[in-house]
Structures are given as structure tokens and as C-alpha cells.
Design a protein that fits this description.
By secondary structure, this protein is mainly β. It folds into four domains: about 1-45, no CATH class; about 55-230, Jelly Rolls (Sandwich); about 235-335, Immunoglobulins (Immunoglobulin-like, Sandwich), CATH 2.60.40.10; about 340-415, Immunoglobulin-like. The chain is built from two helices and 31 strands. The protein has helices spanning about 20-45, 330-335; strands at about 60-65, 70, 80, 95, 100-105, 110-115, 120, 135-145, 160-165, 170, 175-180, 190-195, 195-200, 205-210, 215, 225-230, 235, 240-245, 250-255, 265-270, 280-285, 290-295, 300-310, 320-325, 340-345, 350-360, 365, 370, 380-385, 390-400, 405-415. The strands form five sheets. It has a 16-stranded mixed sheet that branches. Strands 18-24-23-20-21 form a five-stranded mixed sheet. A hairpin with a 4-residue loop joins strand 25 (about 340-345) and strand 26. The protein is globular, with a radius of gyration of 29 Å. It starts with 17 loop residues before the first helix and ends with a strand.
């Protein structure tokens, strides 16, 4: 906070020299200018949104901006480049470019992840065609991933979590996660990954879409039968954070994953970015559970896989795995991380309790399934095994620098 000091002038007699009057006016003008500059600076600081502030203190705000993302403010015709400090308000439009993504946090603590080549409008700029009620946001074209809070704030408006497309109006249930895709004609596809979503179509139909279901609604609001989504596959090789030996001229890597029930085929994406905003490998309809990718340069890559059930309808993508293609000598120099197991026992017929410690930042998998590792390196999870009978489980730890260690244990699973 700035203060302007007071300067008291002492006059010795009644006759003021004209120089004294002139300087007094100059000081007065300078003081007023300082006040104006300080006020403008305070206004600019107040106008900037601190990313650490909770959304309940204001409207929607960006959590993430990557690539080309533009905003058109309500009542204005020009699109302006967006960043995390761009203030979002009622009736604003958000547009992502071919490799642009954005993540928006709403006052009800829900999050909308906007994928490339998408257009959404915020806070009631569109109404549902069937009910005419206000919505928190509307998607005209493109794809978003949305996640509702486990518990909405007490002060949240009744319809604050509602959304719409040209064909449907929907509301996410608590802690729900779903993907929503809208084609240029206005047809919509909702894929439910957790929780449930309540939908009202343009034709007046009411639907409840629950976990692992997908539904398509055409531009007229007519809903097709719901379909079941396959679960996300577990990635096997290379494991997350692994280093892979390869030549600079023609590097290659073999990617493998587990088959999942209900998947007729698979979709593989590979990108230089963990956001997958512009994957250079995007293969659909894969019937094998392994793919060799050739022509890679040295560096870091990210890959993920989704199962495809009904035609052109894919389930949730797996967690991404990061690999580093590098020289063979660097792979050999990577040191394995520590891996200590404190408990490995069946807690029921097919549920295995695995507990142990490793170095912080290490990735730990059991038969390819990623385990949650705490900041101190400890882990404790219950994992359902895929098959009954005598088998061997593999616990693998991969450090941040690519070092790897694998432990194998025999297990006998009693059939139900």
C-alpha cells in the first residue's frame, strides 16, 4: 500500500516569491500523479486472479492452458489469446486450436478438460432446447472430459453443475467422471467412467447413464440404446518411467498391454506430451495387444491404450506410461530402486494385499497394474487377481531415472 507524504511549507513573511509559488504547483501535480499511478497499480493487482485462490471466491477460472487457446469476451467480437490468468465470465466463449487444451474450474468445484478443436460457452450463454433452463456451460463442437466434485459447495446454485449440447442437457452426479463428444452436426456421445449422469434429450427423453455405459444422441435428440464400455487396459511393456535402448537413426519400441473383457479392438496413442494434445501415433481398431513403433528419435514419449467395444465407441484410456529412448550405455547405467515387501497375502479368494516401501517417485506395478505410491515411497493396496489357480505375480519397481527391479512370487488362488 502506497502513501503520499505531506510536506509542510513555512512562510517567513507575507510576500511570496513567484519561484516558490511555481514550485508548489509542480509538487502538487507530481503528488496527484503519484496517487493516480499507485491507484492504477492497485487496480491491476486486484484484477489478476491468483491461481491458488479457491473458485468459490469468483467465477470460473483456468487451471491449465496449453497450446493455442482463445477467449471471446461477452459483447466483444475479437478472440484474445488465453493463459491461466485470463478472467472468465458469464457468456464468454472458449476455443481450443488443433493442439490446444484447457482445463476450467467452476464455482461448484467441477472441472471441465477441453480437448483440441473444441468450442464451449460459459455460465448460461446457452439454454437447453427441451427445458429452457440455464446451464453452467455449453459445448457446441469438440470433446471434453468432465469431473464433478465429491460434494458441491453449500452456496452453489441448483443448476451450477449442469451442461448442455445442441441435443441434450445433463447434470453430473457427485464424484462422477465422463467424456462428452459433439460432432459438427450436433449429435452427442456420452461415455460414463464413474458415477452417473442425468440426461434430458431434445426430444424429451430422460436417461440415467451410469458407470461403464455410453449413449449416443443424434442431432434431433433421439437416443440410441446404451452400450457397455470395456475397462482400461493395464500397460505391461515398457513400464512407466522405463528407459529403452535404441539408436538415434532408427529407434524402435515394442508396446504391450493386457487384454480386457469386452474389448473387440484397441486404440493406441503416443505423444511427446502427457496431455496427448497432438499424438503422432493414433491407431484404432488394433486387434493385437502389442504394437511396434519405429523411427523414434532419442527422448521422452508418452503412450496409452483404450479398449473399443461397440463400433467407434472406446472405453476410458489407461493411465499413460512414460518411456525414454536413449543409448544402450545409459540404460545399463540406471540403478534399480530399493523394493521392500512387508506383506503379500490373499485377503480373500482372489484379492491380494500388497504392502511395502520403495524410493519416493518410483513407479510400482503388480502384473502391470499401477499401484499408488505415497510421497514417502510407501504403498499398500488390495489387487484383484485375474485368474484362479497356481500362478506367479510380478511386482516391478521403476525409478525416476529408469532403473528397474522385478520380484516374482508364487500364489495359489482358489476358484470361487
Amino acid at each position: 500500500m502506497f502513501r503520499r507524504g505531506q510536506q509542510h511549507w513555512r512562510v517567513e513573511d507575507d510576500l511570496l516569491d513567484w519561484f516558490y509559488v511555481r514550485y508548489k504547483h509542480v509538487y502538487l501535480v507530481l503528488g496527484l500523479s503519484a496517487l493516480l499511478v499507485a491507484g492504477w497499480g492497485a487496480y491491476r493487482l486486484a484484477a489478476q486472479v491468483d491461481p491458488a485462490l479457491p473458485a468459490s471466491l469468483g467465477g470460473a477460472r483456468f487451471l491449465l492452458v496449453d497450446g493455442i487457446v482463445s477467449v471471446r469476451k461477452a459483447g466483444h467480437g475479437d478472440w484474445i489469446p488465453a493463459d491461466r490468468r485470463t478472467v472468465l465470465g458469464r457468456y464468454d466463449l472458449v476455443r481450443t486450436g488443433p493442439r490446444g487444451i484447457a482445463e476450467i474450474l467452476f464455482p461448484d468445484h467441477s472441472v471441465v478438460h477441453v480437448r483440441p478443436d473444441s468450442l464451449i460457452s460459459l455460465q448460461g450463454s446457452d439454454r437447453d432446447a427441451a427445458s429452457g433452463r440455464q446451464v453452467a456451460w455449453h459445448i457446441s463442437a469438440g470433446e471434453v472430459f468432465m469431473r464433478a466434485a465429491a460434494r458441491a459447495p453449500v452456496a452453489a446454485a441448483p443448476d451450477s453443475g449442469a451442461f448442455s449440447t445442441p441435443a441434450v442437457r445433463g447434470t453430473l452426479g457427485q464424484a462422477a467422471e465422463a467424456a462428452l463428444r459433439v460432432d459438427p452436426a450436433g449429435a452427442s456421445e456420452l461415455r460414463q467412467f464413474s458415477g452417473s449422469t442425468h440426461l434430458e434429450t431434445r426430444s424429451g427423453a430422460v436417461l440415467e447413464v451410469v458407470f461403464s455405459q455410453a449413449v449416443r444422441v443424434d442431432e434431433r435428440g433421439r437416443a440410441a440404446p446404451k452400450v457397455i464400455l470395456p475397462p482400461p487396459p493395464d500397460l505391461l511393456e515398457p513400464p512407466h518411467q522405463a528407459k529403452v535402448a535404441g539408436t538415434k537413426a532408427a529407434g524402435k519400441v515394442l508396446l504391450t498391454w493386457k487384454p480386457v473383457p469386452g474389448a473387440e479392438s484397441y486404440r493406441l496413442e503416443m505423444d511427446r506430451s502427457a496431455y496427448f494434445s497432438g499424438p503422432f501415433v493414433d491407431r484404432r481398431g488394433l486387434t493385437d495387444t502389442s504394437v511396434e513403433v519405429r523411427g523414434l528419435e532419442h527422448g521422452q514419449y508418452y503412450w496409452r491404450v483404450a479398449g473399443e467395444g461397440a463400433p467407434q465407441v472406446e472405453g476410458r484410456f489407461s493411465e499413460y506410461a512414460r518411456l525414454t529412448l536413449t543409448a544402450p550405455e545409459e540404460v545399463r547405467a540406471a540403478l534399480p530402486p530399493p523394493l521392500q515387501l512387508e506383506n503379500l497375502e490373499l485377503s480373500s479368494t482372489d484379492i491380494l494385499h500388497v504392502k511395502g516401501t520403495t524410493a519416493p517417485g518410483t513407479s510400482v506395478t503388480l502384473n502391470g497394474r499401477r499401484l499408488g505410491v505415497r510421497q514417502d515411497g510407501s504403498f499398500s493396496e488390495f489387487v484383484q487377481l485375474d485368474q484362479a489357480g497356481h500362478q506367479t505375480v510380478a511386482i516391478r519397481a521403476t525409478s525416476l531415472d529408469g532403473g528397474m527391479v522385478t520380484r516374482r512370487f508364487p500364489i495359489a488362488v482358489v476358484a470361487r
